[in-house]
Write a structure and sequence with these properties.
By secondary structure, this protein is an alpha+beta fold. The protein has helices at about 5-15, 20-30, 35-45, 50-90, 110-120, 135-140, 150-155, 180-190, 230-245, 295-300, 320-325, 340-345; strands at about 125, 135, 160, 170-175, 195-200, 215-225, 250-255, 260-270, 275-280, 285-295, 310-315. The strands form 2 sheets. Strands 1, 5, 6, 7, 8, 9, 10 and 11 form an 8-stranded mixed β-sheet that branches. The chain has a 3-stranded antiparallel β-sheet with strand order 2-4-3. Bound molecules: phenylalanine. Phenylalanine binds near residues 218, 257, 292, 313 and 315.
């Protein structure tokens, strides 16, 4: 076995010369595979004396490790080179003009999102954000829903295991509403607070008007002497601007949310017929959002003194607003990524929503 040194030189050379990962793997198999040179040598040790076995075994192991290291280093170098070559070959010039027939469309959810931000932005609201994966404190407890509160069941929550704790109370949730952003905002900001928090929310539900992932916008206003009249005025201005109508009948029905007191649901006037839904004056009503005065317990959980400050909050479904404003009948189609649907209901990228430019820019791209 004096050719061990030769085997080493030859193999390292072959590794060095390998130009792609397939060739490199062939080299590996030829040395370390089932019938590889080193494997065979290892097998042949059986016929050696104990002393020789010990010495040769040691040498072979050192050689094996050396070759394995060289293979690993080369493998990484090849992978980097292959990735770089791929990136180079697939380079796209993003500054090239697109063909009009291939032009992409803005999804109605993004469009409504922009419209809502633009309306509340004009009123002096800032946009706030929170994580999609929430702890139970922010999603429930701090919102006046302690463990075992019946409202927790109402929300069809998806729980996410906590890798650091087997205790169910420590598990995370994918947020069931955007209301946890209320708490996160209060934790980080002193009043006056005036924010909206648009984002994704999740509940285990699936039919024509419910999907497991959907979108909401939360609104929160906290200051001294805030009353229900402020809430009503603010939301009235919002729906008028959003539906682009000079006047629109609204009504508030008493409701229940653990985190607001009193709580209400807001309806807007409409005319329903078999084939059409017309928003505005009419004899029918359509529920559009949930709202109320922030519960003192929620203010306390956010570190705000309820004797000094009051606030109102509301939560609107963005997808639902899109269905109403643009007449889209089935929510499930929003998330099917069908390009024909997007072409029909989507918007041209340069139609930016603004209060001065007209929010909807004459409806969808197809109209
Ligand atoms: N979080 C409530 C929901 O998802 C909506 C809401 C928000 C109600 C804020 C009142 C105040 O149904």
């Amino acid at each position: 076995m004096e050719n061990l040194e030769d085997l080493k030189i030859q193999t390292l050379k072959a590794i060095d010369n390998a130009t792609d990962s397939k060739i490199l793997d062939e080299v590996r198999v030829s040395v370390l595979g089932k019938k590889g040179a080193i494997t065979e040598l290892m097998k042949s040790l059986a016929s050696f004396s104990v002393e020789e076995k010990k010495e040769m075994g040691k040498k072979l192991n050192i050689l094996k490790t050396e070759i394995e290291n060289a293979l690993e280093t080369k493998k990484e170098a090849l992978a980097t080179a292959e990735l770089n070559a791929k990136l180079e070959a697939e380079r796209i010039d993003v500054t090239l003009p697109i063909r009009p027939e291939n032009q992409g469309r803005i999804h109605p959810v993004s469009k409504i999102y922009e419209e809502v931000v633009s309306i509340f932005g004009e009123m002096g609201f800032e946009v706030a954000e929170g994580p999609d994966i929430e702890d139970q404190f922010h999603n429930f407890n701090a919102l006046n829903m302690p463990a075992n509160h019946p409202a927790r069941q109402m929300q069809d929550t998806f729980y996410v295991p906590n890798p650091e704790s087997a205790d169910f109370d420590d598990s995370y949730v994918v947020r069931t509403h955007t209301s946890p952003v209320q708490i996160r905002t209060m934790e980080n900001k002193k009043p006056p607070i005036r924010i909206i928090a648009p984002g994704r929310t999740y509940r285990s539900d699936y039919d024509a008007t419910h999907t497991p992932m959907f979108h909401q916008v939360e609104g929160l206003v906290i200051d001294k002497n805030i009353t229900m009249a402020h809430l009503k005025g603010c939301l009235y201005d919002f729906v008028k601007a959003f539906f682009e109508l000079d006047d629109i009948p609204v009504r508030y029905r008493p409701s229940y949310f653990p985190f607001t007191e009193p709580s209400a649901e807001m309806d807007i006037g409409c005319k329903k017929s078999k084939t059409e839904l017309k928003i505005g004056a009419g004899t029918d009503w359509l529920e559009i959002l949930g709202c109320g005065m922030v519960h003192p317990n929620v203010l306390r959980a956010g570190g705000i003194d309820p004797d000094e400050y009051q606030g109102f909050a509301f939560g609107v479904g963005i997808d639902r607003l899109a269905m109403l404003k643009y007449g889209i009948p089935d929510l499930r189609t929003f998330f099917e990524s069908d390009v024909r649907w997007l072409k029909h209901y989507g918007f041209l990228p340069l139609d930016e929503s603004s209060m001065t430019g007209g929010l909807s820019n004459n409806g969808g791209a197809a109209r």
